[in-house]
Design goal:
With 214 residues, the protein is of the alpha/beta class. The strands form 2 sheets. The protein has a 7-stranded mixed beta sheet with strand order 1-3-2-6-7-8-9, with helices on both faces. A two-stranded antiparallel ribbon has the order 4-5. Helix 2 crosses helix 3. The longest helix has 23 residues. The termini are far apart. 40% of the residues are buried.
Amino acid sequence: MAIARTIPVAVHGRYLVESPTHGMPAGVLLGCHGYAESADVQMERLRGMPHAAAWLLASIQGLHRFYRGRTTDVVASWMTRQDRELAIADNVAYVAAVVDEILRELNVDLPVLFAGFSQGVSTAFRAGCSSRRRVAGVVAVGGDVPPELSVEALGRLPAVLLARGERDEIYTADKWHADQARLRAAGVVLRAVSYDGGHDWHDQVNREAAALLR
């Protein structure tokens, strides 16, 4: 009978960086895309947020790349249920390494605002809660708070924007309300937003995120 084993190896992750239009950035706005998306898609979302031009934008691509359907479009996933705990640890270390590299190049300590969509929401929360850097908060759209994060871990986040489309069948209303209760119990300054849409990143998200970026 075959025995399943795992082994750690070095892999290369891809991320996009865009400097602010003028001067020193106000902080790092770091995006985590959804399932079967790319860093390029999340970068477009970051650009659409008010005041984003004053921040350094970074969009991280999941380590597990594949082609979308029968096309040549390269997309990625953050994890599957196979070896889930190991993938979580890999993703947290990956995001932390990107943040460290960016701030090392800037040679300044800046706050980091994590922005995730769908599957990328879990990565954004995990990275934010475990970050050694100053965290401005999390913008979470269409994805739930990871179940393993404790009250103490969530309490490290100063602010969260938790957004959901009213017709979203993936991130349900029940999950959204449960996540609100968990975040409030942790003392997080929470802005919960429901918008007229489905499982998507709506313009209203950008408008609501303006306060965090200011």
